[in-house]
Structure formats: C-alpha cells, structure tokens
Amino acid sequence: MICNRARVIVVGTLVLILLWLSSSSLLRLYYLLRMPFVWKASSADAIISQQHDDFDVTFADYDANYSTYATGIRPYIPRRIHHIHLGLNSPPKNWLDARAECLKHHEFWEAHLWTDDNADSFVQENYPHLYAMWTNYPFNVQRVDALRYMILQKYGGAVLDFDLACKRSLEPLRRFEFVAPAANPAGFSIGMMLATPNNPYVHALVDNLPVYNQVWPFLPYATVMFSTGCHYASTIFTLQSNRTSIRILAGPSDQPRMHMLNGVVNTPLFRHFGSSSWHGMMRD
After folding, report:
1. Are 187 and 234 spatial neighbours (Cβ–Cβ below 8 Å)?
2. Cα 221 from Cα 279, distance rounded (Å)
3. What is the pairing mode between strands 192-195 and 178-181?
4. Model pTM score
5. What confidence category does residue 29 fall into, taking pLDDT thresholds of 50, 70 and 90?
6. Domain ranges of the chain
7. Which pLDDT tens digit goes with each residue over 57-79?
8. How far apart are CA 193 and CA 83, in angstroms?
9. Are 211 and 94 in contact, with CB atoms under 8 Å apart?
10. Which of 70, 177, 204, 257 has fewest C-beta within 10 Å?
11. In the chain, what is the straight-line distance between the N-terminal and C-terminal CA atoms, in Å?
C-alpha cells in the first residue's frame, strides 16, 4: 500500500512538472540533463594536451618569468584579471589575501575589481536588454555568474573566484582563445575562465542567459546551476557546432583531476579554499 502510494506521488509530481514546463522548457531540460552523458565525447578534442597543443599541463616547463612573446607564441588573451564580489557582506580576509596573491603573480596585468558600485552601471550600459533579468535574479550568485560572462565578452582576460589564491602566473594559458579547468565528474568550472574579448563561445553564454533563466521551485541549487552556473556553461559548450577554439584544462592521463577546483585543493595554479564563496553568495 505504501509503495503504491509512493508511486502515485512520484508519477503525479512528474506529470505536474511536465504540465508546468512548456515545450521549449522541456527541450532545455533535455539538454541540461543529457550534458553529463555526452560530455566525454563532446569535450574529447577540447582537452589540452602535450600531443595536440605542445603544452605541459603540469606547468613544470614554465618558470615564473615565462612569456608567450619570448617563446614566439602569439597570445590571444589580454593581460586583464577580474575579480567579482557582489552583496552586502565584505569579502573575508582570506579571500582578500587570495586576491593579493593573484595580483602579485600578475603585476603587469590590468586588475579589475567588480562590486555593486560598478557592476550595475556596467550591465546597464553594455547589456541594457539583460539588465532587468540580471537585477531580478533570485540568488546573488546568479548575478555573479552572469557578470563573469558579460565581463569576458566585453573585455576578455581572466575571471577568477575570490577564493582562489594564485601560485603562479596564468601567462602560459594566453595562447588559447578560451580555457577553463575540467570539473568532476563532467563539465568545467567557471571559477577560472580565460577568454578573448568578443569570444564566440562567451557570446553564446551571454545570449543564452535569458533562454535558460528559469526558477525551479524548491530547488535553489538547480535554479542556479541550470541558469548561470557550471552546468549551464557546460551545457552550452555541448551545443556549439564549432568547439575547436574552446580548451579545457585537465591533468595528464595518470592525474586527470590535477586542475579540478572541487573542494579544498592544491593545483599547479591555485590553492582553492573550497565552496564557501558559492554558499555565501547563495545567502546574500
């Protein structure tokens, strides 16, 4: 009797969800749910490697003074580093220390700090058609995530989470047009992204923000991840017809998680303090 009642509840819930969703919403949900299953095949040619890119993913070959210019490699990504902090609470000291470490390793890069004081006017002036949506996101982290894409599209450079303390310069990655670290078990992290200005893929991320702007009742994490977060960005990646210039930074075959930013980790590029920044922005 209990099992039958549970089945009725589950089936009834699914029917209500299907009735609530439009046909276009169902298609988006399909794309979002299939992402983990198609990611490996979709990203196979995007993974940076020694064989295909002549690039050492351990970064052991690149000293602190490495320059793309000096090695004769054309750099695509400008020397700009962006950090974002929106909300009422000030960044904790360890985040400020982490940003200071990144600025120390990028002293010749333009440094930009985006806060409520300048982010609002930036979106209003450069993306007026998205301004109302952006200001009305139910969670602050959605505003932060969407702002990442807008900043990258406009200015290019590197956008970093506040809780990433740099251990070295990101200079070697400037040879690519877009790069982000692999996530576990699928997709990539938007905690670190580097891109050229007006990058076609970043353009797609910005253009699809209204399309995927949907609140999932009683599912705050799904609302964030499916509308602006890593899952959203990874889904848009799988829908690109041309992914040749989009690069994913993973580790060598014997250490595929080398650059993953899941939890408190040390990678060749960063000390990551964990997911506290994400949870904090959910509350602001």
Report:
1. yes
2. 10
3. antiparallel
4. 0.90
5. very high
6. 23-283
7. 999 999 977 888 778 889 999 99
8. 11
9. no
10. 70
11. 44
Q: CA-CA distance, 69 to 75, in Å (whole number)?
A: 7
Separation between Cα atoms, residue 174 and residue 147, nearest integer Å: 21
Choices 3.40.50, 3.90.550, 1.10.3470, 2.170.16: CATH for 23-283: 3.90.550
DSSP string, 94-140: HHHHHHHHHHHTTTTSEEEEE-HHHHHHHHHHH-HHHHHHHHT-SSH
Q: Coil, strand, or helix at residue 79?
A: coil
Q: Distance between CA atoms of 233 and 108, rounded to whole angstroms?
A: 29
pLDDT exceeds 70 at position 276: no
CB atoms within 10 A of CB 160: 25
pLDDT band at 283 (very low <50, low <70, confident <90, very high): very low
Instruction: Tokens 């990144």: give the residue.
Output: 102
Residue 45 CB neighbours (<10 A): 12
CA distances for 58 relative to 43, 182, 228, 254, angstroms: 20, 14, 29, 12
Extract the tokens encoding 271: 């000390």
Choose among 182, 190, 134: nearest CA to 161. 190
What the block records as the tokens of 140 is 């602050």
Side by side, which strands form the sheet with 80-84? Answer: 110-114, 80-84, 157-160, 192-195, 178-181, 246-249
The residue behind tokens 């949506």 is 133
